[in-house]
Write a structure and sequence with these properties.
By secondary structure, the chain is α+β, with helices and mostly antiparallel strands. It is built from 3 helices and 8 strands. Strands 1-8-3-5-6 form a 5-stranded antiparallel β-sheet, covered by helices on one side. The chain has a 3-stranded antiparallel β-sheet with strand order 2-7-4.
């Protein structure tokens, strides 16, 4: 099964919880067991898995990423969004998650987050279930 999730972000940097959208795609395709591959086809965005219960976790991750990658630096990239490219490479463009019983086999506190680093924009996440 293959699908593409459309995401509209609303801030320059933002984590969007897409766990429910992915599980909905798995459910509607009737997939019971398999492997879910998620891929972000953007150079200034990423995808990660982390705690979804406490929203402070995602804001803490963003705060530290913003400290590690300064907004102003002697960047050569003329588009002016080098920090977003660097954060995208630190977090990475893909995730692989087992699907069991029609659901993502995530830990109790885990959620899947689309990471926006150069928003607001219209974005995509490609979903493949094998
Ligand atoms: Zn750029």
């Amino acid at each position: 099964m293959k699908r593409t999730l459309a995401i509209k972000t609303s801030s320059r940097t933002e984590f969007v919880d897409i766990t429910a959208d992915i599980e909905e795609a798995i459910r509607s395709e009737g997939v019971d067991d398999g492997v879910c591959m998620l891929f972000v086809p953007h150079t200034t965005a990423a995808i990660t898995i982390n705690e979804s219960a406490d929203p402070s976790v995602k804001s803490d991750i963003l705060m530290i990423l913003n400290k590690i990658v300064p907004r102003k630096e002697a960047y050569g990239h003329i588009e002016g969004n080098s920090p977003a490219h660097i954060k995208s490479s630190i977090i990475g463009p893909s995730q692989i998650i087992a699907v069991e019983g029609g659901r993502l086999k995530l830990g109790t506190w885990q959620g899947v987050f689309f990471c926006e680093f150069d928003g607001p924009r219209s974005r995509k996440v490609h979903i493949r279930i094998l």
